[in-house]
């Protein structure tokens, strides 16, 4: 069977233990996982976090400001997440060491993104130097949406990453917190993976991305099967990467993570077997080889 690599998953042992994670990967035939440390307290089920109505609002530039206003209401002054069921901490500095320790225990199975936050760090370039020396480090994860900063703060970091040929996996925010146009134009050689099919811009970003060095992952309940298909149709299979955002969303019957859900989206896509192989692993391997 063709190789399957999950390009976007979180190491969150409070929701999915190391042993359970590995047995789920074995059962679902996922060969490798690019980890990201958890950036928040364990979250409630998805409908509360991301009502489908909000997802619809994001799909047009006319209604996107309403989705942004709804998002602003969920962030507290302290930078935490306020939902109906309570408040959940967002960690300014996610625990990269936890993910790199898992990589060390299972180097054949796991790789890791280093999660950086220019807003919370005295010197994010030093942080990059520290984490890039860890074995299995493949690039940098950034989250201006929940870490709540404008993406111009990332320019010095992107300058260095472009020199080092390291890709950036970025969960874009609204407006200036996700100015992908400015990033791609200023750093034309930087390889950018926009998480969750280009949340919160989707189609508006896909059109632009095709002319630039921008890829998307097809992870998480921030999108659905239709949006994943639309992204592949708009950008081409060669720009789309399989990813899950595990262990968030897609609960199985035991309230654990269902690793087969997003895999099914890709398997059912109306594209060739070769294109599916690229989405499942080929594109990601090409990105890493270029590093
Ligand atoms: Zn994620």
Task: Write structural notes for this entry.
The protein has helices spanning 18-28, 46-49, 52-58, 64-74, 96-105, 124-132, 155-164, 180-186, 203-209, 225-235, 261-267, 273-289; strands at 5-11, 32-37, 81-83, 86-88, 110-115, 137-142, 168-170, 192-194, 214-217, 240-241. The chain has twelve helices and ten strands. The protein has 291 residues and is α/β, with parallel strands linked by helices. The chain has a single domain (5-44, 93-289), classed as Alpha-Beta Barrel (TIM Barrel). 38% of the residues lie in helices and 15% in strands. The longest helix is centred in the C-terminal third of the chain and has 17 residues, at 273-289. The radius of gyration is 17 Å and the shape is globular. Zinc ion binds next to strand 1.
Question: What are the salient characteristics of this protein?
Answer:
binds zinc ion; alpha/beta; 12 helices; 10 strands; 291 residues; 38% helix; TIM Barrel; eight-stranded parallel β-sheet; 15% strand; globular
Major pleated sheet: 8 strands, parallel
Summed up, the helix count is 12
Tell me which CATH architecture applies here. Answer: Alpha-Beta Barrel
What structural category characterises the helix and strand content? alpha/beta
CATH superfamily: Metal-dependent hydrolases
Rounded average pLDDT: 93
Radius of gyration: 17 Å
Q: Write down the CATH class.
A: Alpha Beta
The proportion of residues in beta strands is 5-15%
Bound molecules: zinc ion
Total domains: 1
Q: Unreliable runs, pLDDT <50, ≥5 residues?
A: none
Short description:
The chain is of the alpha/beta class and 291 residues long. It has 12 helices and 10 strands.
């Amino acid at each position: 069977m063709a190789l399957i690599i999950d390009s976007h998953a979180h190491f969150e042992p409070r929701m999915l233990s190391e042993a359970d994670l590995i047995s789920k990967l074995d059962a679902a035939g996922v060969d490798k996982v690019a980890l990201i440390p958890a950036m928040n307290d364990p979250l409630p089920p998805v409908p509360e976090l991301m009502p489908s109505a909000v997802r619809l609002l994001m799909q047009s530039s006319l209604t996107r400001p309403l989705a942004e206003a709804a998002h602003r209401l969920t962030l507290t002054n302290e930078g935490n997440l306020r939902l109906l069921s309570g408040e959940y901490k967002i960690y300014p500095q996610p625990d990269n060491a936890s993910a790199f320790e898992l990589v060390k225990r299972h180097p054949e199975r796991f790789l890791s993104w280093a999660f950086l936050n220019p807003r919370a760090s005295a010197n994010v370039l030093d942080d990059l130097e520290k984490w890039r020396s860890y074995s299995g480090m493949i690039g940098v994860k950034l989250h201006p949406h929940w870490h709540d900063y404008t993406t111009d703060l990332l320019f010095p970091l992107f300058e260095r990453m472009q020199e080092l040929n390291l890709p950036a996996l970025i969960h874009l925010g609204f407006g200036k917190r996700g100015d992908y146009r400015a990033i791609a134009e200023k750093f034309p050689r930087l390889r950018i993976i926009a998480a969750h099919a280009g949340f919160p811009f989707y189609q508006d970003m896909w059109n632009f991305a095709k002319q630039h060095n921008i890829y998307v992952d097809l992870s998480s309940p921030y999108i659905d099967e239709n949006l994943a298909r639309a992204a592949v149709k708009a950008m081409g299979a060669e720009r789309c990467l399989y990813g899950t955002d595990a262990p968030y969303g897609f609960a199985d019957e035991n309230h654990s993570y269902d690793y087969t859900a997003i895999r099914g989206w890709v398997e059912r896509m109306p594209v060739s077997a070769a294109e599916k192989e690229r989405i499942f692993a080929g594109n990601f391997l090409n990105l890493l080889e270029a590093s």
